[in-house]
Design brief:
The structure holds two protein chains of two kinds. Chain A is of the alpha+beta class. In chain A, about 30% of the residues lie in helices and about 15% in strands. In chain A, a hairpin with a 6-residue loop joins β1 and β2 (about 35-40). The radius of gyration of chain A is 16 Å and the shape is globular. Chain B starts with a helix and ends in a 14-residue tail after the last strand. Chain B is extended. The relative contact order of chain B is 0.10. Classes of the chains: A alpha+beta, B mainly alpha. Chains A and B meet through α1 of A and α9 of B. Chain B: Belongs to the RBR family. Ariadne subfamily.
Chain lengths: ~150, ~600
């Protein structure tokens, strides 16, 4: 079982995530796989996602921390950098990953991405187009989706 | 008078002979076997072309490129690094990082550095002092695995961010195995930009990874540098450094592959890069298939599938499930046909309608497509067959170098150095096949309406083709006789003279041809359409060679003086003594 010789780093990170969680973020490891985390991020205030609770999954691959964690939204979300499978377009999850980054920093970055969508580097072409052509309307849709899918049920 | 001169030139007496002999003076060293043959033929007259051979020499010596072996590349790279390190008074590691950032351009590094050193240091990540200080601390926590280690187990880059040795190793080796991006590696701390140099690599990674890193560094020196490129031949490990400003892009690597520096396709003189690109696209373009379908098929009148009629009568039945029966000529339903429409082999409806002009438009289109397809096929086939022929010649050359030369040297009791003329002949054949091949792409794109040019071009091409065939034949068939013999043959020296002569003649002819074509056959305009057929390569080459210092007047004079004593062979243009009835060079009878 992978849990038996879990690197010290992962254990320490997990302990810290549980003992001093970042505001608006919770991450707890799955019971049968310590590399798999159930994550919840609260929609940042003054964003279209305010009031929503977004579920994510995070997995630490064998190479972690030399390779980036794998993160995906489980809750449906209307966001130009997140596609309908919940995959996230974020540089630090790809080529900008550095082993000096942590689960905490990754989740904080995702939270920041909710506050500041970047339609110029889109993952979801249609949503990005919507965002650029009529931001107000796109924001309305995002709020609507937050109400529909992320209302903490 | 003038046209007479042109006619006279058509015999190529002087042009090729001049070149032939000058070719030999220029390569004097390895060709001493020529000397007796020159004296025999009383060819002193030809030597007044000293200028010409000089210009040839000069043209050859101004080689615009250098082939680099791995050791040369390393040496150059070291030199550049040392130069920058010396001028900027920085470490060699830092100099290497800087050069890598500025694509190995020493002058760009210097310019940027002296314009704004601080800015350069910042963008490249060369810190002057650490961001983090660890004086008087015995234990440090690794920023990656979070373990605490004694100071000695921790390494830092110039910034001072502490990571343990095993995390460093993991970080560096992950990056190295990710590709050449490792050459631009920075400190793991995302907010830090400190560059990681080769010193860290050498200190911290396995030998295997060090080797990989060094490979990338070497590759980067060639690939990121604008003045160098790898030889594109498969398996070749040489690189070529090209001097900017040279007009001749043809580059030949030590591996014997020639390529165009500009477009990296194989060498394609006399055709320009644009034409080559067009031709290559054309060769693989779907459009030719479409042309074929258009030219050779008609769509089924019912299901519209294209149908090729390759034999039989006009009664067509489309493939199931369509199974429509129709007449090939008028494309009407077969059921409407019968005795009254002209029976099974003709279609009166078609004939009548054709007379009325009903089918004109489509027929014309089909005819045009067919013609253009045939034209393309003509050029493509010849292009491709010269390509094949060249491949064969290359493998023959290889065979010659690895097997036959040694055997021949034993059998004929000649040192291998004296058999170099055979290799040279084969090298020439390979080169000529290449040129000839590209002349077909040239011909294909020669504008239809320039009749005079076209005629002249085809004449030159035809001559080139037959000249090359003669050489190829001699190197292939006649040499075979000597390969089959066990002992020395008295005829071997004659063979040597002949093959070396043919090589030289062919080389000069092709050099002139290349220059004439690169010149856009410019002479045709001045000569007019009528004399174009009669104009020899002399005129085409003469003008472009004019700057080489060879006055037309002198060469004409010399040829007149020799005309009385010599006759020019119609086949190989060799100037023979008047008394000879067969050509000394190619053994064909005088005509």
């Amino acid at each position: 079982m992978a849990n038996s010789n879990l690197p010290r780093r992962i254990i320490k990170e997990t302990q810290r995530l549980l003992s001093e969680p970042a505001p608006g973020i919770s991450a707890s490891p799955s019971e049968d796989n310590m590399r798999y985390f159930n994550v919840m991020i609260l929609g940042p205030t003054q964003s279209p996602y305010e009031g929503g609770v977004f579920k994510l999954e995070l997995f630490l691959p064998e190479e972690y921390p030399m390779a980036a964690p794998k993160v995906r939204f489980l809750t449906k979300i209307y966001h130009p950098n997140i596609d309908k499978l919940g995959r996230i377009c974020l540089d630090i999850l790809k080529d900008k990953w550095s082993p000096a980054l942590q689960i905490r920093t990754v989740l904080l970055s995702i939270q920041a991405l909710l506050s500041a969508p970047n339609p110029d580097d889109p993952l979801s072409e249609n949503i990005a187009k919507h965002w650029k052509s009529n931001e107000a309307e796109a924001v309305e849709t995002a709020k609507e989706w937050t109400r529909l899918y992320a209302s903490g049920a | 008078m003038d046209s007479e001169d042109d006619m006279h030139d058509a015999n190529d007496v002087e042009s090729l002979d001049d070149d032939f002999y000058s070719g030999e003076t220029e390569d004097a060293a390895p060709m001493d076997y020529y000397s007796d043959f020159v004296e025999d033929d009383d060819a002193d007259d030809y030597y007044d072309d000293g200028d010409d051979s000089g210009s040839l020499e000069c043209r050859r010596s101004e080689q615009s490129f250098t082939v680099l072996k791995e050791s040369d590349i390393q040496e150059r790279q070291e030199d550049d690094i040392n130069r920058v390190a010396g001028v900027l008074s920085i470490s060699r590691v830092s100099a290497s990082i800087l050069l890598r950032h500025y694509n190995w351009s020493v002058s760009k590094v210097h310019d940027a550095w002296f314009a704004d050193e601080d800015q350069v240091r910042k963008t490249v990540g060369l810190l002057e002092k650490p961001v983090v200080q660890h004086s008087n601390i015995n234990e440090l926590t690794c920023g990656i695995c979070f373990e605490t280690y004694p100071r000695a187990k921790i390494e830092t880059a110039s910034c001072g961010h502490p990571y343990c040795i095993s995390c460093w190793e993991g970080y560096l080796s992950t990056s190295i195995n990710d590709g050449p991006g490792c050459l631009m590696l920075r400190c793991p701390d995302p907010s830090c930009g400190a560059a990681i140099g080769q010193d860290m690599i050498n200190l911290l990674v396995s030998d295997e990874d060090k080797e990989k890193y060094n490979r990338y560094l070497l590759r980067s020196y060639i690939e990121d540098n604008k003045k160098t490129k790898w030889c594109p031949a498969p398996g070749c490990e040489y690189a070529v450094a090209f001097d900017a400003g040279s007009a001749n892009y043809d580059v030949s690597c030590l591996c014997s592959y020639s390529f165009c520096w500009n477009c990296i396709e194989e060498a394609h003189r006399p055709v320009d890069c644009g034409t080559v690109a067009k031709w290559i696209i054309k060769n693989c373009a779907e459009s030719e298939n479409m042309n074929w379908i258009l030219a050779n098929s008609k769509p089924c009148p019912k299901c519209k599938r294209p149908i090729e009629k390759n034999q039989g009568c006009m009664h067509m039945t489309c493939h199931p499930p369509c199974k429509f029966e129709f007449c090939w000529l008028c494309l009407g339903a077969w059921s409407d046909h019968g005795e009254r429409t002209g029976g099974f082999y003709a279609c009166n409806r078609y004939e009548t309608a054709k007379q009325e002009g009903v089918y004109d438009e489509t027929e014309k289109r089909r005819e045009m497509a067919k013609n253009s397809l045939e034209r393309y096929t003509h050029y493509y086939e010849r292009w491709a067959s010269n390509q094949t022929s060249r491949q064969k010649a290359l493998s023959d050359l290889h065979q010659m170098q690895t097997v036959h030369i040694e055997k021949l040297s034993d059998a004929q009791c000649q040192p291998e150095s004296q058999l170099k003329f055979i290799t040279e002949a084969w090298l020439q054949i390979v080169e000529c096949r290449r040129v000839l091949k590209w002349t077909y792409a040239y011909g294909y794109y020669l504008p239809e309406h320039e009749q005079a040019k076209k005629q002249f071009f085809e004449y030159l091409q035809g001559e080139a083709e037959s000249g090359l065939e003669r050489l190829h034949q001699c190197a292939e068939k006649e040499l075979q006789l000597f390969l089959n013999e066990d002992g020395p043959s008295s005829e071997f020296n004659d063979f040597r003279t002949k093959l070396a002569g043919l090589t030289s003649v062919t080389r000069n002819y092709f050099e002139n041809l290349v220059r004439a074509l690169e010149n856009g056959l410019a002479d045709v305009d001045t000569n007019g359409a009528n004399s174009s057929k009669a104009t020899s390569s002399k005129n085409a080459a003469g003008s472009s060679k004019g700057k080489g210092g060879r006055g037309k007047g002198t060469s004409r004079g010399s040829s007149r003086a020799t005309d009385d004593n010599l006759w020019a062979c119609e086949h190989c243009t060799y100037a023979n003594a008047k008394s000879a009835t067969t050509c000394h060079m190619c053994n064909l009878p005088r005509r």
